[in-house]
Every structure is written in C-alpha cells, then in structure tokens.
Design brief:
- By secondary structure, the protein is of the alpha/beta class.
- Helices cover 35% and strands 20% of the residues.
- Helix 1 crosses helix 12.
- The protein is globular and about 65 Å long.
- The N and C termini lie far apart (46 Å).
C-alpha cells in the first residue's frame, strides 16, 4: 500500500532528537519527512537542520512557536518527536496532543507522577497517540526472551535477576557531569536510566507489580572521595590523571579520540581533538567527578513482587566495565540468561538437559539497533502502515514502569515496602 510520508517535527534537537531520531527519519524517506525542528541552541538548530534538509524558516528557537504555527495553519504536521530535557516533557506533549498530533515521547514520560498523569489525561482527550521510547522492547534478545516465556520454555516463571551495567565512564558522563546529575533538574536516576528495565520486567512477567522496595545512596562521587590534590578540572594538572578511571581526557579523547560520535557530540557540537579539549577546559564535562554538584545515587537495588508470586530484582550500577544489561530468569522447568550487548540468549531445559545458545544479533551495537527498530516502527505507524495498532510501547503499556519507579523511590526514602497500585 502506498503511503504519503508523514510530516514530523523534532522538539529538542539534542542527542536523542537530533542524533538518533532525525537521522533515522532521513533513512526512511518513504515513511516520514522532518519538516521542522525546535531547539534553543542556535548551533544545534543549524547542524540538525542542515543534515535533514529543514529550511531556515522551519528551525524554531522554541517548540511553542513551532506548535503555534501548526495551530495557525502555517505549518502542516502529522506527528512530533518530544526529546526535550526530562523536566520539559509535559507541556510540549500536552500541546501537541491538543492539536491532535501523534507523539514519540523520549523516556521518561515525565520526572514526577503528577506530570505522568497530566500526559495520560491529555492523551485520553486527543485523537493523537503517544508512543514512549522504550526502545529495549525492540531489542532482538529481549524480544526472543519474551516470546520464550510466553511459550512456556521455562515452565512457570519463578524469578528474574536483572542488572543494568551503566558503565563507569558513562555514569560519569551522564550522571555526575551531565544533564541527569541532579534530581531537581531531571529525575531520579532509577527513573531516568532504568524505567526501560522496569518496563522489561513488567513485560516479561505479564502481571502487575504488587510490592516494591529499594535501597541506594550517593556513594562514591563525592568531595570526600577526591584524591589528594585533585583540582576542580581534569585539565588543570591532576596528580592522579594517569590512574583515574573517570578522568575527562581519558574518556573523551582516550576512548573516542575526538571523533564525532556520542558522547563527544554532547560535549561539543562538532567534535575534533581540539574542540573536545577546549570544551573540557571550559565546559561541564571537564570537571573532576569529585568536585561536581551531582546528587543522584550511583548503585541501586530494587526488589519487586508481582501478582501471581513472581519475584524479581533490579540492580542499577555505575561501577561496571561494560555498558550493557544482563538477565537471569528462573522457571519451574528451566533457566535462561541474556546478555544485551552481545545479543546472546542461553536456554537450559531441566526436562531434557538441553543447553541451547541463541545468537540474536546486534552484538556490539545493541542499543543502536533497538533505537532504529523502535523509530522504524513508529514511522510506519504515523504513516498509516499499521492502522490503529498502538504498538508495543504505547502510553498505556508504558505507564506502569513509571509508577513502579516512583513507588521504589518512595520505598527507598522511607525504608519500607510499597504497593505501587495504591
């Protein structure tokens, strides 16, 4: 069936909006076309606009002006990507839904429960549909695990142990020096980083969570942990530069060599060795990790009990060598293990003694592959390929992961079990 390419706008042209979804749209010209974008940074408007053929008059400084043109009939749109900072998700999503536009909403839905409820109410009143960017449901290894559990490959599900290995350098980039370092400016670390993982647990179990508790605290990235003589910035002659695993030059130049890839693209708009070094000398990503203003936790453990008796644990840690996720699943008749980064799924059948390895693909580029799969799925939906099918990560399917995250944070602060359904 021939479809007209859907006209979309990118609200927030940062890493997710400008470096993930906009290029994905450029790779699907028969389905969608980026016709407008909004970002308060002039350089990002220029770069993302030029890369995607967005004319100068359609590069807006603020999403309000862009949506005002839609309301006035001066700009025709079918859908928007909301990839603004976490604390700025609610208003643009509400405004887009009020215009009847479909929305791809970067996770988390909102940084607090009140914001999540506002978006849910706006979606109820709109003909537009909200898809939450829970991209991990589109990762082949996790899709295969979900299918096996539905088919009874392990018998009756008993428990899950899920670990998110953030990666020590990634945590330093995003949660110590970066935009998610303070709860007041973004959201709790569990919500910002692991609402994906809570969504996966809920998906695999297939039942509501009825009790949750959690334990965590900021542990390592504090001033009292700083090595003797450590300066404010890594480029100011740090005495432990050669051995510090969190040194900024070591991460951005040693690991990536000034190349134009994430996370260098977050550090400076057009990365080279010279521009990255200059940004480290003067910008937030060159600060000593022990001299920042961060307050989010760096190692968190969550325990969950689901209706029907399945018990699960989620560990989210900064202190890992790999940037990946690993899962162990136990059933009455078998056991399974999944490694996200390697794309490998291992099954053990107690009944036959069989041990089977599945290569699910996307090894080494697992997150990128999941990003592309979710983007393609959404592009097809806004182009009308799938009719009224809301998709795997529509708003209704994604709400519970956020409710669980907020309950887990309450439980952590109050040191008790909480029923997230209440």
């Amino acid at each position: 069936m021939a479809v007209r390419p859907a006209r979309i706008a990118i609200l927030g042209a940062g890493n997710r909006g400008g470096d993930v979804y906009a290029p994905a749209a450029a790779g699907a010209p028969g389905l969608v076309r980026v016709v407008a974008l909004a970002d308060q940074r002039e350089e990002r408007r220029r770069l993302v606009g030029e890369r995607n053929g967005v004319e100068g008059g359609r590069r807006y400084e603020h999403w309000r002006a862009l949506l005002a043109d839609v309301a006035a009939g001066a700009l025709e749109l079918d859908a928007v990507v909301v990839a603004t900072p976490d604390a700025e998700h609610v208003e643009p999503t509400e405004a887009a839904l009020a215009l009847g536009l479909d929305v791809l909403l970067e996770k988390p839905i909102a940084p607090d429960l009140a914001g999540v409820r506002r978006i849910a109410l706006a979606a109820e009143r709109s003909r537009g549909r909200v898809t939450v960017a829970h991209v991990l449901r589109h990762a082949p290894v996790f899709e295969r695990l979900a299918a096996g559990l539905r088919d009874g490959a392990l018998g009756r599900l008993v428990g899950i142990d899920h670990v998110e290995h953030i990666g020590h350098w990634h945590f330093a980039h995003s949660y110590v020096r970066g935009a998610w370092r303070r709860e007041a400016d973004a959201s709790p670390m569990l919500l910002a980083k692991a609402c994906h993982d809570l969504d996966l647990l809920r998906w695999w179990v297939g039942e509501p969570c009825e009790r949750v508790t959690s334990s965590a605290a900021p542990r390592h990235f504090r001033s009292e942990e700083a090595p003797a003589g450590a300066p404010e910035r890594c480029t100011d002659g740090c005495p432990v530069e050669a051995s510090c695993p969190y040194g900024a030059p070591r991460i951005y130049l040693g690991r990536y060599g000034g190349r134009a890839v994430w996370p260098n693209l977050v550090v400076t708009p057009e990365p080279t060795e010279a521009s990255v070094l200059e940004a480290l000398r003067n910008g937030p990503y060159g600060r000593c990790v022990y001299r920042c203003d961060n307050d989010v936790v760096d190692h968190q453990v969550v325990a969950l009990e689901f209706v029907g008796g399945v018990r699960a644990s989620l560990t989210v840690t900064a202190f890992s060598a790999e940037m990946t996720r690993t899962v162990r699943v136990w059933g009455t008749h078998g056991e399974a293990a999944a490694h996200f980064g390697r794309g490998v799924l291992e099954w053990h059948d107690f009944r036959t003694g069989e041990r089977r390895l599945e290569d699910c693909g996307a090894s080494g580029e697992a997150h990128d592959a999941a990003d592309q799969a979710l983007a393609r799925d959404w592009f097809e939906r806004v182009a009308g390929v799938h009719g009224d099918d809301p998709g795997a990560t529509d708003l209704a399917a994604s709400l519970e992961s956020h409710v669980i995250a907020f309950a887990a944070e309450r439980a952590r602060r109050e040191a008790r079990w909480i029923d997230p359904r209440v």
